[in-house]
Amino acid sequence: MLGKAGNAIARSEQKSFSYGHGGGAAALRTHQRHAGELGKSNLFLALVPEREVALQAVETGRDIAKRYSLSKTPRPHELMHVSLNGIGKYPDFPDDIVFAVSAAMATVKAAPFEVNFDRAMHFASAKAVVLANAIRSEEMMDLHVQLAKEMWAVGLNFTYNPRFMPHMTVLYDETPVPEHVLAEPVRWVAREFVLIRSLIGKSEYEYLDRWPLLD
Fold first, then answer.
1. Is this structure's pTM higher than 0.90?
2. Are 177 and 126 in contact (CB under 8 A)?
């Protein structure tokens, strides 16, 4: 493991679709199906901002909470990320899945690109306040598609959403927050993507592997 972290826009509520692929990896998919929604480990691929940017996102969340009288506080800066592709939930640590994902991701080719979130909005279904952009990042969409293709190629379940909307969740609250432009955008240059294990119910992330984005 590499480390831990502790405690034009598509308006649909970010629904994703999981697909299977026939072939020699049926055991991997069976492992995923049996875990269901009760798994203790949630694996996903993501972009993680630099510490200074993550702290800026926390401050942005704090300003939003104060401005709209929200009852919840922002998530810890260690948990700030942009999800790219979900992999699945598991009852334990899925060594075989991690190995297969790590091997597949080693073949990904993509250049660094800027992540730029210029506004905040509310996802009612997730009860989440998120940072996003009015214009979807084509570089991030391309990466989302490429990661799904690589997982499909090795027989893993994969997520692909044609309406994929990159965003960063800064806090969870039921109170609606109107979409608004931020006084200062939250942005950074993504130079790698990461495989994260979320320990469900513990607000803790483990970074299992990472891959550079190369020019």
1. no
2. no
